[in-house]
């Protein structure tokens, strides 16, 4: 089963998604036209009855990835994942260096300005790196709502509750979930903090357990600083007593890591509350239980399926729609450091000369296929009559073991994209990456 295609009627109102085969037939017979590419949506050119069913949207919000899912009547109609940009802060820092260096070189008097201070900006101001991620979370939810008829919206706003970390005894109307919710909240906090990686053998995935660094029998507590993530291979009776686990806990008595991700989710949660007051919100502690009941593996798109409140799955796509934003321009006026392949910085080249957007009919971010092979990817840069090609995961696709470049004459263009890369991949390929 493949992901469904979103459909709009000729008046611009959303209809039920259809199968890809039906969409191809409608486009072939000129009964529909392509309306959007992210997500792929067609618009009918003739009248339709507009029969609709109950639909639910599941959103696994986050600072690195967004899980998307659309379910209806025990069926998963669409599942996907959006990878957000993580380079905004570094790019802004680089721009700041260029600006200050330029001002130091040109020492003319600059009149003081007081209206561009952060403290004078509006109350809803966010730093550009945070604002970028928050806006993408909100915009992708709006994209799904715009192509679906009156869907119920379910959003996960964090893996754990920060308020629970401050007061483990909190209860009442805020939770009404009992002791199990508290246990799952702390557990999800530790798993997210350790990036779902065993802290002893550094292996990711598999069966993970929560281990006390200082045993409770020796006065240890259930606080997050006394808990670590370990895999089932390391979490054995022998390792508890004299093995590698006991040695690791002896060397490291507590775990202190940045809670930057949790802070971002607190910011995002408030923005989502304001943007979608009609949505149903939940924490990752309950998502874990729902995903276990559905017998789904851990992933962002499977989390979104569980969040959508589906109780039983009769049909589910075997592929995932992956979205990733592509940056097409290098905006710096000059280079502060030499690029790879150059001994000195290229300070004489103009901005446009360093931004080759097209060559011989191919454009940046075009979806291409290497002839006489099954390799498909996106053009990430040009080098005279050749180019660099990457897949949706950022891996280079080449024709030889020696060079990363691929000649443009060996390519066939499959589709033209602008700033978003989109690719439908198999679940096995997703797990490998």
From TrEMBL:
GO terms of molecular function: endonuclease activity; nucleic acid binding; zinc ion binding
Domain HNH nuclease, chain residue ranges per copy: 185-236
Domain of life: Bacteria
Keywords, ordered alphabetically: Endonuclease, Hydrolase, Nuclease, Plasmid
Record NCBIfam families: guided_IscB
Protein name: RNA-guided endonuclease IscB
């Amino acid at each position: 089963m493949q992901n469904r295609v979103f459909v709009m009627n000729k008046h611009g109102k959303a209809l039920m998604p259809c199968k890809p085969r039906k969409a191809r037939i409608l486009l072939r017979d000129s009964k529909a036209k392509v309306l959007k590419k992210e997500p792929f949506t067609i618009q009918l050119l003739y009248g339709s009855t507009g029969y609709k069913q109950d639909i639910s949207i599941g959103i696994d919000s986050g600072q690195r990835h967004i899980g998307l899912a659309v379910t209806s009547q025990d069926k998963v109609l669409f599942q996907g994942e959006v990878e957000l940009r993580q380079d905004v802060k570094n790019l802004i820092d680089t721009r700041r260096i260029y600006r200050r260096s330029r001002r130091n070189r040109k020492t003319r008097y600059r009149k003081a300005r007081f209206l561009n201070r952060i403290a004078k900006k509006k109350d809803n101001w966010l730093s550009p790196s945070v604002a970028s991620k928050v806006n993408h979370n909100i915009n992708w939810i709006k994209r799904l709502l715009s192509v679906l008829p009156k869907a119920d919206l379910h959003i996960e706003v964090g893996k754990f509750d920060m308020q629970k970390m401050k007061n483990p005894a909190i209860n009442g109307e805020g939770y009404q979930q009992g002791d199990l919710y508290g246990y799952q909240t702390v557990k999800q906090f530790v798993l997210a903090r350790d990036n779902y990686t065993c802290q002893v053998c550094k292996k990711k995935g598999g069966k993970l357990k929560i281990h006390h660094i200082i045993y409770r029998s020796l006065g240890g507590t259930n606080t997050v600083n006394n808990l670590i993530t370990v895999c089932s291979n390391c979490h054995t009776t022998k390792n508890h007593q004299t093995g590698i686990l006991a040695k690791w806990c002896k060397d490291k008595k507590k775990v202190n890591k940045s809670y930057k991700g949790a802070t971002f989710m607190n910011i995002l949660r408030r923005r989502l509350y304001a943007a979608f007051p009609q949505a149903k919100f939940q924490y990752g502690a309950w998502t874990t239980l729902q995903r276990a009941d559905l017998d789904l593996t851990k992933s962002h798109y499977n989390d979104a399926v569980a969040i959508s409140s589906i109780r039983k799955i009769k049909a589910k796509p075997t592929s995932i729609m992956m979205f990733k934003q592509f940056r097409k321009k290098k905006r710096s006026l000059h280079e502060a450091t030499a690029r790879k392949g150059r001994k000195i910085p290229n300070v004489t080249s103009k901005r446009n000369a360093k931004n080759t957007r097209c060559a011989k009919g191919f454009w940046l971010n075009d979806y291409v296929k290497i002839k006489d092979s099954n390799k498909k990817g996106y053009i990430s840069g040009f080098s005279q009559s050749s180019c660099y090609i990457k897949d949706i995961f950022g891996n280079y696709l080449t024709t030889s073991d020696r060079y990363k470049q691929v000649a443009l004459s060996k390519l066939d263009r499959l589709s033209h994209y602008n700033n978003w890369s989109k690719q439908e991949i198999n679940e096995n390929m997703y797990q490998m990456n």
